[in-house]
């Protein structure tokens, strides 16, 4: 879709990853000034240099969403550069690859690591970005990137499932609280998406679970993984003026995965 985001400033977290890059590009292509934020500053800077608009419309910064001080510092840098925040895309998140095990064997340190980023980090980032957004009084948008596993649980990744299920309900709670103040809050729940991480697990010949890829795809009616660009299109819609009466929703972009059994 094409929309009008001129004059709006969008922060995208986890922006150096595949989905983050696609989201940044679509927002920039539609006129937004985009903050490419990531815990890996060099990757954020390298990608920011490829976006349309140049230095006047694009900013790269390091934000570790698990660290409240880093979050506050990053948002302050954005305000010094652009003076406002209108759109926040809470995209940053992590999962486990080495510990795909049942909960009774799941390491507490790994549980804490994932919850700290995927849930606590969303809270830290939202709280910091909402302060100037609400103070300005011009409304705004928050889009939380959840997951289909927050809607339909999977085995062997209990921490990630718990974090994303919490994020689904957090999105709804935020919408209830912030709607009267002009800020719309929605979520996107991607299914399996082609990215660096999923290639390492499923979509390359030497992936950890490559032998089960066909079985996995049997649960997806469209019989393929999604692309980062397909997720970005949903985020663009929820950031656009055209979605002005949509809040508290979590849009599954999952090839039909959560519609029910594919058999």
Secondary-structure blueprint:
Blueprint: E1 9-12, H1 18-29, E2 33-38, H2 41-48, E3 58-62, H3 68-82, E4 87-90, H4 108-136, E5 140-145, H5 158-178, E6 183-190, H6 196-201, H7 213-217, H8 228-239, E7 250-253
Parallel strand pairs: 1-2, 1-4, 2-3, 4-5, 5-6, 6-7
Helix pairs in contact: 1-8, 3-4, 4-5
Please characterize this protein's 3D structure.
The protein has 263 residues and is of the alpha/beta class. The protein has two domains: 9-190 and 227-253, Rossmann fold; 192-225, no CATH class. 41% of the residues lie in helices and 14% in strands. Helix 4 (108-136) links the parallel strand 4 (87-90) and strand 5. Helix 3 (68-82) runs parallel beside helix 4 and helix 4 (108-136) runs parallel beside helix 5 (158-178). The model has no long low-confidence stretch (mean pLDDT 92).
């Amino acid at each position: 879709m094409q929309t009008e985001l001129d004059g709006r400033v969008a922060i995208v977290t986890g922006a150096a990853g595949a989905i983050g890059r696609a989201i940044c590009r679509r927002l920039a292509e539609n006129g937004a000034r985009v903050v490419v934020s990531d815990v890996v500053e060099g990757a954020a800077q390298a990608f920011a240099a490829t976006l349309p608009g140049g230095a006047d419309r694009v900013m790269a910064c390091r934000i570790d969403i698990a660290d409240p001080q880093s979050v506050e510092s990053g948002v302050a840098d954005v305000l010094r550069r652009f003076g406002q925040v209108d759109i926040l895309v809470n995209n940053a998140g992590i999962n486990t690859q080495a510990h795909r095990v049942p909960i009774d064997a799941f390491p507490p340190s790994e549980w804490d690591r994932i919850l700290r980023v995927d849930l606590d980090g969303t809270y830290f980032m939202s709280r910091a970005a909402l302060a100037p957004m609400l103070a300005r009084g011009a409304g705004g948008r928050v889009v939380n990137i959840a997951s289909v596993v927050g809607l339909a649980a999977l085995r062997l990744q209990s921490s990630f499932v718990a974090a994303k299920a919490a994020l689904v309900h957090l999105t709804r709670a935020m919408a209830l609280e912030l709607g009267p103040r002009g800020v719309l809050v929605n979520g996107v729940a991607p299914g399996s998406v082609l990215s660096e991480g999923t290639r390492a697990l499923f979509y390359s010949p030497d992936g950890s679970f490559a032998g089960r890829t066909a079985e996995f795809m049997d649960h997806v009616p469209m019989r393929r993984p999604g692309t980062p660009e397909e997720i970005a299109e949903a985020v663009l819609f929820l950031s656009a003026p055209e979605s002005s009466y949509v809040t508290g929703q979590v849009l599954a972009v999952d090839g039909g995965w959560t519609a029910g059994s594919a058999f």
